[in-house]
Amino acid sequence: MCPINYRTTYQFLGTWAVAKDHGAGSEEMHVLYASPGTIEAYRKDGHFPDGAILVKEVYRAATGAMTTGTVSHVDSLRGWFIMVRDRNGHHPASDVWGDGWGWSWFDAANPSAASRNLPMKDGIVRPTFDYKENCKGCHAPAVATEWIYIEGYPPLKH
Asked: What architecture (CATH level 2) is domain 10-150?
């Protein structure tokens, strides 16, 4: 499950909008938080510290006309994607730990247990048994920044 009270005790990193494949607007909105001290540590040496936790809230987006134009906003929570920094590889035999992180999805419909499912962009949920198969593909372009797309997080920049 997500860390308790992460919205008030963790630091806000930023928000991403995931565009729809067809039509105007966003399909999803991703809102990210980092455990206390993560931002300062990253800004100090460009590395996420061991034990750092990143919490990504994944929302379905709604898009509609507003006075400012076509706008997408958070609609309903799909779940949480959690990453835990493991710089020393404490879980070498695990299928959800590797490349310096623990990777896990918690579905909003059953948040008390890791569902081992990741939401796919088309809305289809597929089982996750190996982070290499289900996570690394999306994160591969960010391998140089420890698998995290830091360009979307202003607090990480000096």
From this structure: 3-Layer(bba) Sandwich (3.50)
